[in-house]
Amino acid sequence: MIKEYHLTMSEKVKVTIDGITVEVEPGTTILNAARQIGGDIVPPAMCYYSKLEGSGGKCRTCIVKVSKGSEKDPRPMPKLVASCRTTVMDGMEVQNITSPEVIEARSGVVEMLLINHPLDCPVCDQAGECDLQNLGYEHGLQKTRYEFERRTFERIDIGDKIQLHMNRCILCYRCVFTADQITNKRVHGILNRGDHSEISTYIQTAVDNDFSGNVIDVCPVGALTDKTFRFKNRVWFTKPVDAHRDCPTCSGKVTLWYKGEDVLRVTARKDIYGEVEEFICNTCRFDKKKTADWTIEHPTHISDTSVISSNHYETMIPLPVIQEDLRLQEANKVELEKTAKF
Amino acid sequence: MEPLTSKKKILIQKPLNFAERMYLPALGKGLAITISHFFKKEATIRYPEVQREMSINWRGMHSLKRDEDGKERCTACGLCALSCPAEAITMIAAERKPEEKDLYREEKYAAVYEINMLRCIFCGLCEEACPKEAIYLDGPIVPSDYLRKDFIYGKDKLVEEPLVKK
């Protein structure tokens, strides 16, 4: 037993990301190794989705610098690599936020992603929980340098519940992988090539599957949106609540987005990287919009830095103005007891 | 103690005479001040009829702007309501129909836009937050009223008059 334990320990490989060392299984990607450490050093990802097989390698936002290839071959890798597609080697050293080269290259990638992306955040329903918006805020320029016309498309209805805004698409292929993985018969994919590529369902055939609504959740931008929630309200005015129900087709674990008494929207639960925990079925997503349909658990935990949690923070974190002094706290307590006595 | 300066004024108190006891000199002085004000410039204005000129950064009643074609600029993005520290702004968005293209600039517009003028503190953060340059606090002082419900200003009071085409 102990021997086996040692064996597995020795099989693990050591990788250092921004000076933090972590031991991971061989075959893990750099991105997943960074996610095991967590915090600021995790590269952002627009196309990689841990729940979708084969995703990643499209958007290039997760690029990192490998300053030491491995213990055996310590030469650095010649170019920045996509961390979602590069597996770790023993003794590898990776720089993400500590390397100015990576930060600069990433802001270049963001600029490229925003070339054809319209600046219609005030209209877009995804605003407030949009990965591209966050990325643009952190890395993007204030202005665009692109002088040509952005490519434009008409809105397309995929079925009667999902809407596709091809204008906003960044071609991450996540929805294609979802369709591939969750449905047995794919009905939507990418047409044309290069600059002309676009997501389509081939003559707008309705995506007819119980889980087709999940393409809305996996979309990192507002290209695929929920038609039942269209223009209903801004995300940050709604209150997310975790709930579940007995669903014959899916796990039934969802997040309900309340405005007052009404459930405006139902989505799958998302983790800190914005990836859904479990895919939910269309009945749960589109048809069960009454509180009576659900067993409510608790308010969803939303990061304090998110706009969604503005004006209703769940934890009180006072600013560290005064240094904590235990002696002072003790003295205050004694004084309080004295006054209570009188 | 020795005086520190030589500028010492010695007050002489005398008993008041009859006229002083009847307040006559004091009355005369007071009346002189009052009458002198008749000939000075007025400090007040007749408010509702005459309006004082405000400074250029004065913040008064809100107005929702139209663009050069007379379309409403507001797209109901909700950033003004989010930035409002007094939570005075509420809105309901709606989707523009194809025949309403001349009325609204973007595909989404504010069907209902309400500002509670009793809550508003005229801080101007909504103006700063607006990405569409749709709201400005360039109006007059908000007039007084009798009922609380009358202070909730809807689009009928907020939206600018449409442009008259010549």
From TrEMBL, chain A:
GO molecular function, one term: 4 iron, 4 sulfur cluster binding
Family annotation (Pfam families): Fer2_4 (PF13510), Fer4_Nqo3 (PF22117), NADH-G_4Fe-4S_3 (PF10588)
Record bears the keyword Lipid biosynthesis: no
Compartment(s): Membrane
Matching CDD domains: fer2
Gene3D superfamilies assigned to the protein according to its UniProt record, in alphabetical order: 3.10.20.740, 3.30.70.20
Alphabetical keyword list: 2Fe-2S, 4Fe-4S, Iron, Iron-sulfur, Membrane, Metal-binding, NAD, Translocase
Required cofactor(s): [2Fe-2S] cluster; [4Fe-4S] cluster
Record-annotated 2Fe-2S ferredoxin-type domain positions: 11-100
Stretches assigned to the 4Fe-4S His(Cys)3-ligated-type domain: 101-140
GO CC annotation: membrane
Top-rank taxon, per record: Bacteria
Cleaved signal peptide residues: none
Family classification: Belongs to the complex I 75 kDa subunit family.
Name of the protein in its database record: NADH dehydrogenase subunit G
UniProtKB/TrEMBL annotation, chain B:
Binding locations of [4Fe-4S] cluster 2: 84, 120, 123, 126
Limits of the 4Fe-4S ferredoxin-type domain: 64-94, 111-140
Co-factor note (free text): Binds 2 [4Fe-4S] clusters per subunit.
Cofactor: [4Fe-4S] cluster
HAMAP family given in the database record: NDH1_NuoI
Organism, scientific name: Pedobacter cryoconitis
Coiled-coil regions, chain positions: none
MF annotations from Gene Ontology: 4 iron, 4 sulfur cluster binding; iron ion binding; NADH dehydrogenase (quinone) (non-electrogenic) activity; quinone binding
NCBIfam families per record: NuoI
Family under the similarity heading: Belongs to the complex I 23 kDa subunit family.
Entry's transmembrane regions: none
Principal subcellular localization: membrane
Cellular component annotations (GO), alphabetically ordered: plasma membrane
Protein name, UniProt field: NADH-quinone oxidoreductase subunit I
Reaction catalysis annotation: a quinone + NADH + 5 H(+)(in) = a quinol + NAD(+) + 4 H(+)(out)
Membrane topology qualifier: Peripheral membrane protein
Protein's UniProt keywords contain Thylakoid: no
Subunit architecture: NDH-1 is composed of 14 different subunits. Subunits NuoA, H, J, K, L, M, N constitute the membrane sector of the complex.
EC number: 7.1.1.-
Localization per Swiss-Prot or TrEMBL: Cell membrane
Keywords linked to the UniProt accession: 4Fe-4S, Cell membrane, Iron, Iron-sulfur, Membrane, Metal-binding, NAD, Quinone, Repeat, Translocase, Ubiquinone
